[in-house]
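Q: Structure tokens for this one, please.
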Amino acid sequence: MQKNHEKITSNNHHILNDSFFITKKTDKSIKIKTKTTKVNDFKNHHISNYSTYLSEIFKKENNIAIWKRKLNTDLIKASNHFILKNPNLEFSKVIKKNSLKKMCSEIEFDYKILIIIEDINKLVNEFCDLFNIKSVWLRLDAINKPMCPKFHTDDVRCRMVTTYRGPGTQWIPQNLIDKNIKESDIMELDIGHVALLKGEGWQGNEGNGLVHRSPHKNTEYKRLYMTIDFVEFYHKLNHNRLNKNI
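A: Here is the predicted structure, written as tokens:
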């Protein structure tokens, strides 16, 4: 397995304190039981069975748009094979639209995972078309524990996420943030769901970014997780990292 030298990690987000208010980064954790519920009907989000409705993220009141797609058997098998062959995968690359060949050259490739690469390529194109851009920052990681264990919001305009294997991202509806949060209030994306998460960097959305975290489970899990970000966010993190090293 090849670890890409362009891998960048980020703490560029806001953590929620014990009162569930958005604050600057803190070490306080939110103590909530790990039982979760699946997506239901709450305000400030849009859920659909069709990818075309991801555009609902442009509505001011929505801070998450979810495409409730289901992975077919071939994609599920390929995902299992992919994570078995690349258990420590950390792929991070700025890629252009329709860059299938480049992705194949960067990952330890075999034809059993081609269907995943093709699917990711479609999602990259979907993101590019939606925001009228030509390239994105793509990350694909094999994970066995929460990357971001605390509820937080991200300092991004918008991020696309999906999970090919394992539990999905957990989030809290915006209208419940300032209330007493119950375990049943925690939503969780299903495997295969594609979501657009609106962040603090979206114009006019400061203080209203989607509150979310990595999935919490009682047992260790194997997760294949994809994120797509704007290239500007990649450059911002890279610039901050270089300044810290000066």
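A few notes: Confidence is low (pLDDT under 50) at residues 1-42. Residues 114-131 form the longest helix (18 residues).
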